[in-house]
UniProtKB/TrEMBL annotation:
It holds the Pfam family Pentapeptide. PANTHER family: BTB_POZ DOMAIN-CONTAINING PROTEIN KCTD9. Gene3D superfamilies: E3 ubiquitin-protein ligase SopA. This is Qnr family protein. The gene is qnrB1.
Length: 214
C-alpha cells in the first residue's frame, strides 16, 4: 500500500493489520484508531511546513510496527502500545505520556513489551511512562523528559544520554553498557543491578576524583 494523505481523519479500522510502505500522512489524525499489527515502513508523519506530527492519541498500537519512519512531534498520549516496534525512526519531540506498554495479568502482576531501537528520541516526553524489561537499545535520548518514568531491567545499551536527568527516573537493573552516559552522577542515582563496562566505570570514577590503577 502506497499513500499520500493530507489532513485526513483516519477511520477506526481503516488500516488495521495493513502493511503500508513509503507513504506520507501529513497532519493526519489517527486518534482512537485500531492499528493492531499494522506495519508502517519508510513512512512520513511529520509535516515540515506545519511542524505537526501524527496524532496517535488513544490509538490501539498493539504489535504495531514503525520502521524507518519520521515520527517527529508525534502524539502517542494514552495509546495502548503493548508490543509496539519503533525501529530506526526519527521521533524527536514525540509525546508518550500516558501510553501503556503494559499487560495487566492481575492488579499486582503485569509485564511490559516494547521494542524501541536505533531511534532518535531527543526531547521526547516519557514522563511517568513504565517501560520495564524492554528493548530500548542504541537510541538518542538527548534532552528527553523522563520525570517519574520507570525503565527498570531494560536494555538501554549503546544509547546517547546528553542533557539527561538520571535522577528523574528508575534505571535499576538496566544494561547501560556502550552508552554515552552524559552527566550521570553515581551519588544521586540508584544504580542497583545496573550493567556498566570498564570504560564507563573509569569515566565515572574519574569524575569523582578517584584514579583506577591497572
Amino acid at each position: 500500500m502506497n499513500l499520500a494523505l493530507n489532513g485526513e481523519k483516519i477511520g477506526r479500522n481503516q488500516f488495521t493489520g495493513a502493511k503500508i510502505e513509503n507513504s506520507t500522512f501529513f497532519n493526519c489524525d489517527f486518534s482512537g484508531t485500531d492499528l493492531t499489527g499494522t506495519e508502517f515502513i519508510g513512512c512520513q508523519f511529520y509535516d515540515r511546513e506545519s511542524q505537526q506530527g501524527g496524532n496517535f492519541s488513544r490509538a490501539i498500537l498493539k504489535d504495531a510496527a514503525f520502521k524507518s519512519c519520521d515520527l517527529s512531534m508525534a502524539d502517542f498520549r494514552n495509546a495502548s502500545a503493548l508490543g509496539i516496534e519503533i525501529r530506526e525512526c526519527r521521533a524527536q519531540g514525540a509525546d508518550f505520556r500516558g501510553a501503556s506498554f503494559m499487560n495487566m495479568i492481575t492488579t499486582r502482576s503485569w509485564f511490559c513489551s516494547a521494542y524501541i531501537t536505533k531511534t532518535n528520541l531527543s526531547y521526547a516526553n516519557f514522563s511517568k511512562v513504565v517501560l520495564e524489561k524492554c528493548e530500548l537499545w542504541e537510541n538518542r535520548w538527548n534532552g528527553a523528559q523522563i520525570l517519574g518514568a520507570t525503565f527498570s531491567g531494560s536494555d538501554l545499551s549503546g544509547g546517547e544520554f546528553s542533557s539527561f536527568d538520571w535522577r528523574a527516573a528508575n534505571f535499576t537493573h538496566c544494561d547501560l553498557t556502550n552508552s554515552e552516559l552524559g552527566d550521570l552522577d553515581v551519588r544521586g542515582t540508584d544504580l542497583q543491578g545496573v550493567k556498566l563496562d570498564n570504560y564507563q566505570v573509569i569515566q565515572i570514577m574519574d569524575r569523582l576524583g578517584i584514579t583506577i590503577i591497572g
